[in-house]
Design goal:
Blueprint lengths: L1 E2 L5 E3 L9 E4 L6 E6 L5 E6 L3 E6 L5 H4 L7 E4 L4 E8 L4 E7 L4 E7 L8 E6 L5 E7 L4 E6 L3 E6 L4 E7 L5 E6 L6 E5 L2
Antiparallel strand pairs: 1-2, 2-3, 4-5, 5-6, 6-7, 8-9, 9-10, 10-11, 12-13, 13-14, 14-15, 16-17
GO cellular component, one term: RAVE complex
Organism: Copsychus sechellarum
Protein name: DMXL1 protein
């Protein structure tokens, strides 16, 4: 799966020289992150305009009709930009990281209810925007990085921030959690 500056999203398959389908054509907002759910049957994209779109990966029906697959869900999750997201547990719960004018830069969403009621909880952290997210399922922790180099640890069971660490002097660009969830590692723009 590829996402581009021109906003296009294309799927390729090993052994095929050409794309197998185009989920989104060029001329849209820049794709900032794409992720598959754990089962691999869904994926989502977030973009520079603050939107998230969720798709089913059952693309095989699309070449027969000649039409591009459409997202089954699209909504604006941040007012300025959406930088990252993660699927939480069953894939119906999603956490997003971005930049919103009200500083609710980390949000938790339930995709099974209407978009107007889907915001489960918003966290006011990373005052200049959140850049990246990681999820530690065993401990139910959400780890976010921000533009000013801070890393925030959020307990999803309690829906509250546990720690705020100054991990870098520049924007946090990557977070990885080890499989045992004993450690996490952050990487920055520097």
């Amino acid at each position: 799966l590829t996402g581009a500056q021109d906003g296009s999203v294309r799927m390729f398959e090993w052994g095929h020289a050409q794309q197998i389908t185009c989920f989104r054509s060029g001329g849209n907002s820049r794709v900032t992150r794409m992720r598959f759910n754990y089962q691999g049957n869904k994926f989502g994209i977030v973009d520079a305009d603050g939107y998230i779109s969720l798709y089913q990966t059952n693309w095989k029906c699309c070449p027969l009709t000649g039409t591009s697959p459409k997202p089954y869900l699209t909504w604006q999750c941040h007012s300025k930009t959406a930088n990252d997201f993660v699927f939480i547990s069953s894939s119906s719960l999603i956490a997003t990281a971005g930049f919103s004018s009200d500083n609710r830069n980390i949000c938790l969403w339930d995709t099974l209810v209407s978009p107007t009621n889907s915001l489960v909880h918003a966290f006011i952290c990373h005052d200049s925007g959140a850049t990246v997210l990681a999820y530690a399922p065993k401990h139910q922790l959400l780890i976010s990085g921000g533009r000013k180099g801070f890393t925030c640890v959020i307990d999803l069971r309690l829906k509250q921030q546990q720690q705020l660490l100054q991990s870098h002097d520049s924007p946090v660009k990557a977070i990885a959690v080890d499989p045992t969830e004993e450690y996490f590692v952050t990487g920055s723009a520097e």
